[in-house]
Amino acid sequence: MEISRSTRLVLVVFCQLTVWTRTTSVEGRRFVDRQTSYGTVRGFVDVIKGRQKVEKYLGVPYAKPPVENLRFEAPEPPDTWAGVRTAYELSPACPQPRLGVDYIQLHVPDFNHTSEDCLYLNIYVPRASRHSQRHADVQHHRPQYAVLVFIHGGSYQNGMGAMMDGSHLATREIIVITFNYRLGPLGFLETNDKSFPGNYGLLDQLEALRWIQKNIHNFGGDHDRVTIDGHSAGGCSVGLLMLMPMAKGLFSRVIQQSGSPFADWAVTRQPITPNFYFKIFTTAVGCYGNGTAEVKTCLKELPSDVIERVILEQPEHPVSLVPPFRPVVDGAVLPDTPEKLAATGEINGDEILTGTTTDEGLMAAVPLLNNYGVGRHGLQRLQAVISGFSVDLPAVRSLLDNVMEQYYQWPYEFEDEEIKKGFAEIVGDYFISAPTQQTADLLSSRNVTVYFYNFDYLSQQDRSDGVYHGVELFYLSGYPLTGHDNFRYNDVDKTMAIKLMQLWVNYVQHG
């Protein structure tokens, strides 16, 4: 794939006759109605950068609220509704620790609403001009827009879809969709038996993709040109979706940012019955029983506010950096380990764009070292921290001396800052960069077309020590062009944002 500013954009405009829409105006604000399989939704027209228009449909349900009897179960399609459902505001984020709410506010300032009733998506649609409408492809009834579906990260514990703002990307002639999925214990609690098989968050992702396949033509989208894009745990998720038989036919291209299903932390490969975190969670909410079936009955009977409060107040996950709740090889949703599925299973999607930032481990490593006082106790303490990285692959511990020699030259006598820098490289390579390279190697061996990127741009306005995990998301959201409450940007940053967004759009449209 050759991606450059000279890449030609082939635009085929959708036929209005095939998509039911109605536009109204109230006090200067324009609203647009679109029909879905479940009822009519009313979005609004937003003006981006003073002139470019995007239709926004925020908080559209793709599943029933996963509460009470639907708690810890596969999602079900939403109920139909009569009349017009307004879609003007973001839905609540799924329940998560207070740290996760802080993480959301880094991207979406002042947002702090969480609820179990959280399975909603946001749709950003280019606003067709009168010229494009007059020149629609009436004869072939072909939808105009390729579709980008973004799956957020946050270690399967934190975050929400709207951390990626699709407005700017949508002005470049693609539809952008973001959505929430269940997190933490509500999304991934498992006991290695039929009571709690786990993977509810992955099943939510599948349900959202099914909704898109069924409804995107109503928004002018082409269901044959759907690209899924995920960052961090979302990157692990899109990698898993490539390997899952249940995801067949739901997308054609993949973008995997700073996350891989082959990472040690991405999947529980050998579940424990019942696991340690299951006991912690059920004890915290006050559910006990003679077996997991009794505990499940208790959990389903709890009011939502009890569960939401316990999750909100739960501490950060252990400093091993391995999420306590994550996808599991259950024999159904994930029939086997990612490595075996990649080697022998059918691969979903024809091509993948995958990559990393230059300093992936920076944000995680420095707080970890500060918490453990490595600067006070030196490299012996650092070795103990590294040895705790691997939960599923104990063999890593036997390689510790080789690892230390690779990143630190003997006799290991360095200042604190040098220790932190080396440790950040270890964290980034182990958790992100090496598994991403493994993705490229394994998928290319299966005749999947693989493109690789490295984001190494550091803004002069950024006071960070490097190009940290997730920084590119702010450029993909176009924040340098319109500003952001938490960051300052200059003209060079604006140019970088434009280039990065266009690269993404070119890939979504043409591969």
From TrEMBL:
Keywords: Hydrolase, Signal
Superkingdom assignment: Eukaryota
EC number(s) recorded for this UniProt protein: 3.1.1.-
Domain Carboxylesterase type B: 35-511
EC category: hydrolase
Molecular function in Gene Ontology: hydrolase activity
Name the UniProt record assigns to this protein: Carboxylic ester hydrolase
Source organism of this protein record: Biomphalaria glabrata
Lineage, top ranks: Eukaryota, Metazoa, Spiralia, Lophotrochozoa, Mollusca
